[in-house]
Amino acid sequence: MKLVSIFYLALMSIITYSSFSNSIIINEVSSKNETSILDEDNEKSDWIELFNNADYPINLKDYRIYDKDSFDNAWILPDTVINPKDNLLIFASSKSRNTSNKWGIDASGFGITTFTAFDGMHYEYINYEGDFEISLAVHTFFLSNHFSYIGINFRENLNAESRYAGMFFVPNELNTARLMYRNIENSNPESMDFTQEVIYPISKIKLKRIGNKFVFCISDSDGFDIECKEIEMDMPKSGYLGISYSSQNQNTLSKVIISDLVLNNKPYDFSNLQGIDFNCDIPGKLYLNNEIHTNFDIKTSGETIYLWNNKGILEDKVKIPALKADVSYGRYPDGSNNLMYFYPPTPRLT
């Protein structure tokens, strides 16, 4: 379903009707995306949301989509399944790709903050003993807010009240970093803010341990340290080293795109991490992102988008009108034949 907080533009309240009978349909389109969502490159690409109107999952392998009525030249969709009554977001960016080395974390949770004695987050971790150096590239956020922290931390225990030492990046609106540590279990953490601006998708988080000294750094894409802070903290040699992320809302998922996890100067496979949630009403997950990017973008002056199934039969077409910044055009409710404007747009998380 679309978000309850949708506002329909008073001056753009035209409602049209599109008759369709097929299962996969074009559900919502944005041709002038300014703030609704960033792609994994931290760029403001156009986007198209598809919807499965059937009561069974459908694999979109060899389906095609294009901004012209030309099946032979249309973008071929990859081996991707849409569950019944679910959505798939496609970026119409002209980048023409459907694989990457980037990973996504979806998470709820009220966050890691200095004003609570326990954490609400999704944690991807390994059990680790001894000194280490670990770094992580952060690319962009989706449906986040000022407290949707992504960070690396070393925890004494796998519970929400555990002692820990960690460094966190804050979403794009603030572009800041913060060092936080809980020295006494079940107590409010202490913190120090960095002065260096975090630049997405260039800046990296880096955390080092040397005995009881923890060093926290913002580094650039080449791993050169730009700003560092350190603390002394008496922690056991063995504990849990990993990535924390939260949406700052127990009932809402947000998403972060990450890559280049490096442990002790060697690339580390994200798939070797284990996940756990602390105080999250919606379970989080870590997954290979594999965004879909078409070989075309969408004209802001308006054009028609066509969708064919894997047999070459036209599944749906929608004439997109000229759109203003951060106004989308699509179906309300999802899968219906009512086409209207949305402000703000309502792209799905995954």
What does this structure look like?
- 0% of the residues lie in helices and 43% in strands.
- The strands form five sheets. Strands 9, 11, 16, 17, 18, 20, 21 and 23 form an eight-stranded antiparallel β-sheet that branches. A seven-stranded antiparallel β-sheet has the order 15-14-13-12-19-10-22, with no helix packed on it. Strands 1-27-26-2-3-8 form a six-stranded antiparallel β-sheet, with no helix packed on it.
- It is mainly beta and 350 residues long.
- The radius of gyration is 22 Å and the shape is elongated.
What descriptive keywords fit this protein?
eight-stranded antiparallel β-sheet, disordered N terminus, about 350 residues, about 45% strand, seven-stranded antiparallel β-sheet, elongated, mainly beta
What is the CA–CA distance across the termini? Answer: 14 Å
Q: How many alpha or pi helices?
A: 0
Our estimate of the beta-strand percent is 35-45%
- What is the molecular shape? elongated
Mean of residue pLDDT? 91
List unreliable stretches of 5+ residues: 1-20
What value does the Rg take, in angstroms? Answer: 22 Å
The biggest beta sheet, please? 8 strands, antiparallel
The class by helix and strand makeup works out as: mainly beta
Subunit arrangement of the protein: single chain
E-strand count: 27
**Secondary structure: helix percent:** under 10%
SSE succession: EEEEEEEEEEEEEEEEEEEEEEEEEEE
Could you outline the blueprint of secondary structure elements for this entry?
Elements: E1 16-17, E2 24-30, E3 46-52, E4 58-59, E5 64-66, E6 75-76, E7 81-82, E8 87-92, E9 103-107, E10 121-129, E11 132-142, E12 150-155, E13 164-169, E14 177-182, E15 190-193, E16 204-210, E17 213-219, E18 225-232, E19 238-245, E20 254-263, E21 266-267, E22 274-278, E23 285-288, E24 303-308, E25 314-320, E26 328-331, E27 338-342
Antiparallel strand pairs: 1-27, 2-3, 2-26, 3-8, 4-7, 5-6, 5-24, 9-20, 9-23, 10-19, 10-22, 11-16, 11-20, 12-13, 12-19, 13-14, 14-15, 16-17, 17-18, 20-21, 24-25, 26-27
